[in-house]
Amino acid sequence: MQRIRVKYNRGEAVKFIAHLDMMRLWERALRRAGVPLSYSQGFSPHPQISQAAPLSVGVTSETELMDVFLFRNVTPQWFNDAVNQQLPDGIRILQSQQIAPVLPSLQSIVRFAEYRVEITTDRSREEIETSINKLLALEHLPWQHQRDTGTKSYDLRALVDTISLVDKTPEKCIIKMKLRCDNSGTGRPEQVIAALGFTGYPVSIHRINLYLENNK
């Protein structure tokens, strides 16, 4: 068995595709490309494909990670060329490499996700930086998130590693943030933006990096 780790991007054209639909998109592309997919056992076999951290609807990315298991070996270059020909606009494999099948799953070793968030605002640079410093100085920040299953309460501060103001113009600003993304919780950029005192949803949210265990 071979395990291929794939790094790919997701652009504007596919940012509204939900996670399950994205998995089906990948399955179809891999099959059309002739990739020798390995399947699970049982009554309902499915391709052994796993994502590092599913991307929220409406978010773009340049650093998505996915593992694909194959029943026979192919070269990473063949894999890239064959699969990229079957992918729609807005999604492209950037790199793939062979890794040991026995290594821990991607989901178990993701630790942080880094985002670039654009917000429409007339607040000054000084006001924004003050809000960032105040949030980072907190020990705890009780927060609530409304889900279909009810209200979830948690400590938002525990999910924030770093925040910085990257750019400021009269009409907007760009903020970079590194948020926790593991089994203890997942930080959501739009909630951090709300905690900083911004009103309205961000103009754009772009994931620029995923940090794995032992990869600071």
Q: Please, could you describe this protein's structure?
A:
By secondary structure, this protein is of the alpha+beta class. The chain folds into 2 domains: 2-103, Pseudouridine synthase I, catalytic domain, N-terminal subdomain (Alpha-Beta Plaits); 109-212, Alpha-Beta Plaits (2-Layer Sandwich). The chain is 22% helix and 40% strand. The protein has 5 helices and 11 strands, in the order E-H-E-E-H-E-H-E-H-E-E-E-E-E-H-E. It has helices at residues 19-32, 76-84, 106-109, 125-137, 189-195, and strands spanning 2-10, 49-51, 60-70, 91-99, 110-120, 142-147, 150-155, 160-168, 172-182, 185-186, 204-212. Strand 9 (172-182) and strand 10 (185-186) form a beta hairpin. It is elongated. The model has no long low-confidence stretch (mean pLDDT 93).
Summarize the model shown:
The protein is α+β, with helices and mostly antiparallel strands and 216 residues long.
- The CATH top-level class label of the largest domain: Alpha Beta
Strand content: 35-45%
Shape: elongated
**Approximately how much helix is present in the residues?**
10-25%
Give unreliable regions as ranges: none
Return the structural class: alpha+beta
CATH topology of the largest domain: Alpha-Beta Plaits
Number of helical segments with 4 or more residues? 5
CATH architectural category of the largest domain: 2-Layer Sandwich
Q: Main beta sheet: strand number and arrangement?
A: 9 strands, mixed
Task: Report the count of strand segments.
Answer: 11
Query: Order of SSEs, N→C?
Result: EHEEHEHEHEEEEEHE
